[in-house]
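Sample intake — Glycolate oxidase subunit GlcE
Collected from: Thauera humireducens
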Amino acid sequence: MNIEVRDADRSEDLLAQVYTALATNTPVLIQGGGTKSFYGRATSGALLDTRAHRGIVSYDPTELVVTVRAGTPLAELEAVLDQSGQMLAFEPPYFGEGATVGGMVAAGLSGPRRPWVGSVRDFVLGCRVITGNGKHLRFGGEVMKNVAGYDVSRLMAGSLGSLGLLTEVSFKVLPKPRSSLTLRLEMDVDTALVRFAEWGQQPLPITAACHDGEGLMLRLEGGEGSVKAAREHLGGEEVSAAFWGALREQTLDFFSNPAPLWRISVANDSRPRLPEGAQLVDWGGAQRWLKTDAAAATLRGAAAAAGGHACCFTPGAAESPLHPLPEVLMRYHRRLKEQLDPQGIFNPGRMYDGL
């Protein structure tokens, strides 16, 4: 099946909009499909829509590298990769049909495979960015000069559009696994956490591990022989792989609970003392999804005590959705923002107040 990819370079139009914003000192709200607009603090400004700037600039399956414009629909990119038996290994969530490549990078969110292969940031090779100085610059890839020693291309991942207008990104892609199956094992969460630690010391082809509150879900991927051997070793019942897509897109029944949703990131072998609430343990214990009405300070105290952090995924449920940074890290954020966006026009306050 051939995938029709619409190609349109609108970088000059985007640059002109940034020039206008700089000349009038008008904040801009950078947005693609808007499927992740709930994430981070609410901000305002003149809408700068990236979706017209789309298309795959280059793709060489033999080199495992693809370069794509920021407004390209994420579904379109993944369909093209799938034709060559390849994938974005970090399993980015869509949260809606309109998800774009730029929004994926800006949000920096990864799916169930993240602990085993890496995050969005780990697969970004380079990018082009329109800065708050009105320049269209290339970072990473073949050109290795970066601002003040920062690896700007990777810093764009998870920056929520606060550092500049992303126009183009180059990614490392990986071959899709030859064999994959999903197992369900009946055990409680405490036993599962012990098993995660044990299995981490063994050569098992695990690429996803989640306790849904009732049982343990495991995904095995790799060569047919290794997957078969692991399946015989681990036991359990083979079930549908659709679970992982529903987990990634937050469409499991767990997420329908009306209480605010928090993501607690901790070491996978930690035992954080979290407030009472419905909990789903992902990433082999490193990511805890928690539905609770507990105060933000209580949650963040518990996460920090376990060496982690807590972010709120429910709009309006916390004054600062992202975990507050220590002052020394905040100074680095401010310095970087000042160099790339000196007038502070890009998504002001989206990550933290004053950024």
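Post-analysis note: Residues 296 and 318 are 6 Å apart (CA to CA).
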